Structures are given as C-alpha cells and as structure tokens.
C-alpha cells in the first residue's frame, strides 16, 4: 500500500470526498509550480496531479494547452519534474502526487528507468492519457514493482466489457471523465454522471475509489459531484487562474488559495 492507497482508505472510512487538483509542471516556471503546490496543500488539497508537458496534448482544451506551451518554453522535462517532486518531499511526505501526461516522454525515458526514478523521488501514481489498459502490461508491471499506482480513465462512452478491464487494471483510483470532449468543458446535467459512477461501483464491487474530473469549475459543480463520488478533480480553473495572474504572482497565489478553500468547504457536506 502506497501513500495514495493509504490516503483513500482513511478518507473513505471517514466518508470524505477527496479534493484533487491538477496543474502543468513548470507553468509558468518550476519555482512557481513549487509554490503553487504548497498553496494547494495549505488550501486543503488532498492529492496533486502534476501534468507532464507534451507538444501534442490531445485531450486538453485551450486553457491547459496554453499552460503546456508556457512550460515547454522553459524546456521542462521529466528530469525537472522529478527534481521538483524531490524538493517538495523535503517538506511534505504526506500528500500523494500523481504524474499525468502522455506516453511519448515516458517511453523515451524507458519504463524501468521512469518507474525507478518515480519511486526514488516520491511519486505515488501515474496516469498516461493515451495508453489504454490493453497496451499497458509492460509498464504496469514495472510500476507495480515500484509500488506506484497506475490510474486509468473511463468515460460516458466506455462499454461495459471494457469498463471491467479498466477497473481490473486500475489502482489508486479510477478517473471518471464526466463529459465527452476536452478539458475545460461545462457540466449541464449531473444525473448521467451519478448513474455512471454508481455503475462503476457496482462492477468494481467498491474495490477502487471513483473520482470525477472534467467540467468541475466552481462550488456548485464541486458540491453536486462530491455528493456521489469519492473525489473531484479540478484542473482547467486553476490553470486559468495561473494564465490570468502569473505576471503578478502574489495575487495569483491568493486567488488560487481563495478558490480552493471555497471548493474544499463545498465538499464538507455530502
């Protein structure tokens, strides 16, 4: 059991909804990412997803794409990300960190090397957007040997047979994509999301936490999704705050903290 599994075991036993946040590592620079991560923890964030910058982020909307472009201008690599996590762990050994990105940079580094470095520097989970479970046996094995969770995505269009495979392959948590489309879209109807989360729970026999991402932008959406999920993921809204305020970092940190504190309060009552 790693940090991620231990956290969810405790959180679910207390009937709490996890607050998971996403930001692009190196947006707008490494030092700022480090400070934002601390701000997130101080605001009540439970798990941090660190985005690995990649030149072709096909699942991401324009807001996150802009964040990726800012990070790429700083030549942010996996080595930089591991160094950042190492630095973060000097003052925080509790908050689970998940690396989220695309296959190319990881394959270039090599599965064994990537997994070993992830373990060495304190990464708890990995989510590779463009690598389905059907093609994940090799990296799944190396991650498992290093006690790192591999998280997979399910969506409204995922068929029942494939959903079972995704559940069987997932560890840490299962990321349910609430909407068809890209990050930054808006939720208009909560009922289908609730029904699909309940379907996943039934198939999995409640053996893996189900968290929901895409379209959660404010207290209202957070509270509604939090009532029936094990966690919510917020990404685009945070990256948008960075986009609008990174030239005035003091103001940016305050706005991120205010936004997340309000989201956390909305999750207190299911």
Task: Walk me through the structure.
The protein is 50% helix and 14% strand. The chain is globular. The protein is α/β, with parallel strands linked by helices. The chain has helices at 3-13, 30-42, 62-73, 78-89, 103-109, 111-121, 137-145, 160-169, 191-204, 219-226, 236-245, 249-267; strands at 18-24, 47-51, 97-101, 125-128, 149-151, 153-154, 174-177, 210-213, 231-234. The protein has twelve helices and nine strands. Helix 2 (30-42) runs parallel beside helix 12. The two termini are 27 Å apart. The protein has one domain: TIM Barrel. Strands 5-4-3-2-1-9-8-7-6 form a nine-stranded parallel sheet.
Q: What are its keywords?
A:
TIM Barrel, alpha/beta, single chain, 270 residues, nine-stranded parallel sheet, 12 helices
């Amino acid at each position: 059991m790693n940090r991620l599994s231990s956290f969810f075991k405790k959180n679910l036993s207390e009937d709490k909804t996890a607050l998971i946040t996403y930001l692009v590592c190196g947006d707008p620079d490494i030092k700022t990412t480090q400070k934002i991560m601390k701000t997130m923890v101080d605001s009540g964030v439970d798990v941090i997803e660190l985005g690995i910058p990649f030149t072709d982020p096909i699942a991401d909307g324009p807001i996150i794409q802009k964040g990726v472009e800012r990070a790429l201008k700083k030549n942010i690599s996996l080595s930089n990300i591991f160094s950042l996590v190492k630095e973060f762990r000097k003052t925080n050994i509790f908050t689970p960190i998940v690396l989220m990105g695309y296959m190319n940079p990881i394959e270039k580094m090599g599965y064994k090397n990537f997994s070993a470095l992830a373990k060495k520097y304190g990464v708890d989970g990995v989510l590779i957007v463009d690598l389905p479970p059907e093609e994940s046996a090799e990296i799944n094995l190396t991650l498992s040997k290093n006690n790192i969770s591999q998280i997979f995505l399910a969506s409204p269009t995922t068929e029942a047979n494939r959903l079972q495979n995704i559940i069987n392959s997932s560890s840490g948590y299962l990321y349910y994509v609430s909407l068809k489309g890209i990050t930054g879209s808006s939720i208009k109807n909560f009922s289908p999301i609730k029904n699909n989360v309940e379907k996943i729970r039934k198939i999995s026999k409640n053996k893996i936490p189900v968290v929901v991402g895409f379209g959660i932008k404010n207290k209202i959406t957070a509270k509604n999704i939090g009532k029936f999920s094990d966690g919510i993921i917020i990404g685009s809204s945070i990256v948008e705050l960075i986009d609008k305020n990174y030239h005035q970092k003091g103001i940016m940190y305050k706005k991120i903290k205010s936004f997340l504190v309000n989201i956390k309060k909305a999750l207190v009552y299911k």
